[in-house]
Design goal:
- This protein has helices at about 15-25, 35-45, 60-70, 85, 90-95, 115-120, 150-160, 175-180, 190-200, 225-240, 250-260, 265-280, 300-310, 335-350, and strands at about 5, 50-55, 75-80, 100-105, 130-135, 165-170, 205-210, 220-225, 285, 295-300, 315, 315-320, 325.
- By secondary structure, the protein is of the alpha/beta class.
- The strands form 3 sheets. Strands 2-8-7-6-5-3-4 form a 7-stranded mixed beta sheet, with helices on both faces.
- Helix 7 (about 150-160) packs parallel to helix 9.
- The chain is globular, with a radius of gyration of 20 Å.
Length: about 350
């Protein structure tokens, strides 16, 4: 048995999802004729309390379209130092939008609103004007940290007071909503998750969500926001090569994921916590307890350790020389957690 904990993007379509893909009604989406995609864009926009949505093949494209829509060349974008658009989007903001990224150091991916307030400089001919503030929730490199909705609201209030637009890289906002819903006495049912989704995204002008992280769809993200901005975003998507044709087959997979996989995310979090406890109790140097579906381990020569773990049937991702990420998802069950702990235990004993 191979237990793949490298990412929640490694999941494959389930039989039910494949059946939904095969049955999808399709049309030419560039002509606006794919009914399944049109319905998905409307559904997700409504879920997130925004006017309109635009499907993109990747979260990177959605983030970059948002940056292009909300800035002009020479502007400054402010974001936390570990944010995805800086680390994992290949310098696209500089090439596509001609903007600079200004990084502020937070704690586990979370910024202090006062630090943001102090960072926004007054108009000066020597400075790139700050136009956009971006948040990533959950914060991947922060450890899968869940940024509370109230904290996001405070950050956005500071940003908007200074004249900045606000974009949420909510690739894993599903995880944030499920985690906060689980803290409710009413439990993490569909209604509570919906309420938390709305609260998390409310202060942002635009939001990117991903269907292939956490939800298990094979492809796809969506940018949501004001209808006029999504019309502008559609043009930028075309410029970037993101105008696709019979995409109802992808929309059907995303619809299925929202119906069948979103309610399962809480179990991923529980398994991540069990994995964290097992590693901690075995003497591994684990970072803070997981708030969502990610566990981070510190170990010298992480690439070598991950290679040895793979030889024992467990795949992990080395981030740098001394940090390993493990991500739970719907293809990792209790037996998978046990197998991972056994492999780590064998390495400990070696």
């Amino acid at each position: 048995m191979i237990v793949d904990l490298r990412s929640d993007t490694v999941t494959r379509p389930t039989p039910g999802m494949r059946a939904a893909i095969a049955a999808a009604a399709v049309g030419d989406d560039v002509f606006g004729e794919d009914a399944t995609m049109n319905a998905l864009e409307a559904r997700v926009a409504a879920m997130l309390g925004k006017e309109a949505g635009l499907f993109t093949p990747t979260g990177t494209m959605a983030n970059q379209i948002a940056i292009r829509c909300l800035t002009e060349p020479g502007d400054e974008v402010i974001l936390e130092a570990d944010a995805h658009p800086f680390h994992y989007e290949a310098g696209a903001a500089a090439v596509i939008s001609g903007v600079t990224l200004r990084l502020l150091q937070g704690a586990r991916g979370v910024l202090d609103p006062e630090l943001l307030r102090q960072a926004v400089r007054p108009p000066n001919v020597h400075h790139a004007p700050a136009r956009l503030f971006c948040v990533e929730n959950t914060a991947n490199r922060g450890g899968g940290t869940v940024i509370p909705a109230a904290h996001s609201a405070r950050l956005c209030a500071v940003a908007k007071e200074a004249g900045l637009s606000c974009h949420l890289d909510g690739a894993r906002i599903w995880n944030a909503a499920a985690a906060t819903a689980a803290q409710s006495p009413a439990g993490a049912g569909a209604t509570r998750i919906q309420e938390e989704l709305s609260a998390h995204v409310a202060p942002f002008d635009t939001v990117n969500v991903c269907f292939s992280k956490g939800l298990g769809a094979p492809v796809g993200s969506m940018l949501v926001g004001p209808a006029s901005m999504m019309a502008r975003a559609r043009r930028f998507r075309k410029m970037l090569g993101g105008g696709m044709r019979q995409v109802g087959i992808l929309a059907a997979a995303c619809d299925y994921a929202l119906d069948h996989h979103l309610p399962l995310i809480g179990a991923d979090h529980q398994r991540a916590h069990a994995l964290w406890i097992g590693l901690r109790d075995a003497g591994w140097n684990v970072e803070d307890a997981p708030e969502s579906n990610m566990v981070y381990v510190r170990s010298p020569d992480a690439p070598t350790l991950t290679a040895r773990l793979e030889s024992r049937g467990v795949r992990c991702l080395a981030l740098g020389h001394d940090r390993i990420r493990l991500v739970t998802h719907h293809e990792v069950d209790d037996a998978g957690v046990a197998a991972a702990l056994e492999a780590f235990g064998a390495e400990r004993a070696a």
